[in-house]
Amino acid sequence: LFDVAASVLEYSKARAICHLVESCGTVDAAVAEIDYHVRECGVRFVVVDYAQMLQAPGRGRYEQVTNVSLALRRATSRNKIVVLVLCHLNRQIESREVFKPTMADIKDTGQLEQDADVILFLVWPHRLNQERPIGEFQFFVAKNRNRAIRQQIVKAEFLQHRQRVID
C-alpha cells in the first residue's frame, strides 16, 4: 500500500492544480472567471467546453456566438494565456461519404475560425465505422496561423480504457 501511495505522490508532483468552474452561463461570467483565476491563481491554460453553450448579446445565434468568440479572444490576448475552445460541429458532416471536417463545419459562426490561431478536428474513426480499429485516432489540422501545416492528418493511438490519446 505504501508503494502505491508513494507512486501516486510522485506522479502528482509534476502536475499542476486544476481549477474547475462550472455553469458560467454567459461569456461575461466565463471571462470574469478567467481573469480572476489568471490573476489570483496564476492560471496559464484554460479550456472552454464548449463555446456555443455560452450566452452573449446579439440579435441572433450567429451574432451571439460571434460575440462569444470575440470576448474569449480578448481575454486570451489580455491575459497572455493559451485558451482551448471546444466547439460543436454541424450535423451535415455525418452524412458525407468521406468524413473530413473543414473549418466551415464549425457551428453557428465563422468568427471562431477567424479568431483561432490553431484549429484541430479530433476524429475517432471507429466511432464512425465499427470496422475500423478501435485504437485508431486522427487529428485533422485545419489551421495553424503562425506556421505552415506540414501534415494535414496526424494519426495517433487511442487507449479507450484510459481515455487517452498517444502518438
The number of E-state strands comes to 6
Kindly report the average pLDDT value: 89
- The percent range for helix content is 25-40%
| Number of continuous helical runs | 5
- Measured by DSSP, the beta-strand proportion falls in 15-25%
Largest sheet strand order? 3-4-5-6
Key terms:
167 residues, alpha+beta, four-stranded antiparallel beta sheet, two-stranded parallel ribbon, 5 helices, 6 strands, 33% helix, globular
Structural description of this entry:
With 167 residues, this protein is an alpha+beta fold. Helices cover 33% and strands 21% of the residues. It is built from five helices and six strands; from the N terminus they run ααβαβαβαβββ. The chain has helices spanning 2-13, 27-41, 61-79, 111-115, 125-128; strands at residues 45-49, 82-86, 118-123, 136-144, 153-159, 164-166. It has a four-stranded antiparallel β-sheet with strand order 3-4-5-6. A two-stranded parallel sheet has the order 1-2. The model has no long low-confidence stretch (mean pLDDT 89).
Summarize the structure.
With 167 residues, the chain is of the alpha+beta class.
